[in-house]
Design goal:
The chain is mainly β. It is about 0% helix and about 50% strand.
Amino acid sequence: QVQLVESGGGLVQAGGSLRLSCAASGRTFSRYTMGWFRQPPGKEREFVGFIRWISGSTYYTDSVKGRFTISRDNAKNTVYLQMNSLKPEDTALYYCAAGASVVDATTLRSYDYWGQGTQVTVSS
């Protein structure tokens, strides 16, 4: 059974940093694409970035480029989202997702498995 468990969320002041983790289990993820999405209060879930596990290549939405970094630890089967220079508009419930046959990794429907989410709140 595939499980994705996010952790690392919390309350931080604007300009601060947080590192989210997504621990993956239940299968080998080396050929998966791992995505990060977020859902701000009262809004729809939106794409943040992804990493191709096998290559380590990454891609980010424009609003987080230069501030957020996705990485993975093969030994721990864990994906990270390092968030720096946080802004109040980054406040959201953050989700990680895993997809096996991802064509457009920026879309929710491309992913097969989802975590439960971790809350990030950035105060001004």
